[in-house]
Amino acid sequence: MTLLTATGITKKFGQQTAVDQIDLQVAAGQLIAFLGPNGAGKSTTINMLTGTIPPTTGQIKVGDLTPQDRQYQHQLGVVFQKSVLDGQLTVWQNLNSRAQMSGQQDFKQDNPLIVAFGLSAILNQRYQTLSGGQRRRVDIARALIHHPAILFLDEPSTGLDIQTRTIIWQTLERLRQAHGLTIILTTHYLEEAEAADFVYVIDHGHIIAADTVSRLKSQYAQNQLMIETPHPKVVLEQAQPDWRVIEGQHSVQLAVDDEQAAIAFLHQIQSLVTHFEFRQGTMDDIFMALTGKEIR
Ligand SMILES: Nc1ncnc2c1ncn2[C@@H]1O[C@H](COP(=O)(O)OP(=O)(O)OP(=O)(O)O)[C@@H](O)[C@H]1O
Ligand SMILES: [Mg+2]
Questions:
Q1: Rounded distance, CA 276 to CA 229, Å?
Q2: Which of 102, 159, 253, 274 is most buried, judged by most C-beta within 10 A?
Q3: Which residues pair with 207 in a beta bridge?
Q4: For ligand 2, a single-atom ion, which residues have Cβ within 5 Å?
């Protein structure tokens, strides 16, 4: 079931077009990633979808609601790239005021979100004294207090260590399983995009690819076998004709199907190899193939 639809959304800031005619369809329960470099238009897109800024042109709907409808905001939880919480207030005060705003009189310190995001021990600490990872956990818990249908996360893991990222992702995954939460995130992190059901690759305000991770990988990010050799030409003579190859002065790079193909080929040319490396295709490769630029 389609939950969110955006049709031809465009945002201009003066002469500059930050987002240009983007179309999106997001089904309930999906995890969607917007992947793109700095300035691609990811935050601008999120800000339009969350009703924070109006699109210059285009339509947005969540179910039957548009961003102008009062009920629209109730459907969404938003974690902006820069936190909007009050630094002077404690974690508990920030969370509780949000709960009261959404009519939850019975919000307690043992609320499942407080427990799930590991906030019990820091409830009485002022938000501004928290570490980056603690802040993010509070931000996300706060965005979920009113049980939104869609959670927007603008670069949720930037600057976080692996442990904090893991806690956040395990908790969000449980919420997806339990409540069918839909998640739309922006990221530069490959591993986050790889968890997504569907990825929109954005560059200069345009969607330059929209597909599943597995299809993007097979199209743009094949496995690579790098071989150092004093005789690249001799090595290439033995390569399968349908492999994409890059010949260096003392090296050869081959796009091979899988590890088995790589091992078989290495056996075949063993005496010519001084060094080799096998590398799985990544989202970095996808970005490179589509834009000719590294992702970060
Ligand atoms: N309020 C604004 N006024 C003018 N220009 C803006 C405004 N907001 C964004 N822009 C411009 O729009 C473009 C897209 O910015 P946006 O913040 O959406 O990128 P992003 O993909 O989120 O980048 P990052 O990964 O750095 O967060 C940039 O060139 C930015 O300078
Ligand atoms: Mg941004």
A1: 9
A2: 253
A3: 202
A4: 42-43, 81
Beta bridge partner(s), residue 224: 255, 279
Alpha helices in the chain (DSSP H): 42-49, 91-101, 112-116, 132-144, 162-179, 190-194, 213-220, 232-237, 259-268, 283-291
Q: Which residues of the chain have pLDDT under 70?
A: 190-191, 294-296
Which of 3.30.70.260, 3.40.50.2000, 3.30.70.1110, 3.40.225.10 is the CATH number of 222-280? 3.30.70.260
- CA dist 264 → 45, 63, 253 (Å): 47, 53, 15
Predicted TM-score of the model (pTM): 0.84
* CA nearest neighbour of 129 among 162, 157, 90: 90
Q: How far apart are CA 84 and CA 77, in angstroms?
A: 13
Distance 44 CA to ligand 2 centre (A): 7
Q: Whose CA is nearest to atom 9 of ligand 1?
A: 44
Superfamily of domain 2-217: P-loop containing nucleotide triphosphate hydrolases (3.40.50.300)
- Between the CA of 40 and the centroid of ligand 2 the distance, in Å, is 8
pLDDT at 6: 97
Nearest alpha carbon, ligand 1 atom 11: 18
220 CA to centre of ligand 1 in angstroms: 27
Residue spans in the chain of domains classed CATH 3.30.70.260: 222-280
CA of 14 relative to ligand 1 center, distance in Å = 13
Cβ of residue 41 lying under 6 Å from some atom of ligand 1: yes
Q: Give yes or no for residue 158 CB within 6 A of ligand 1.
A: no
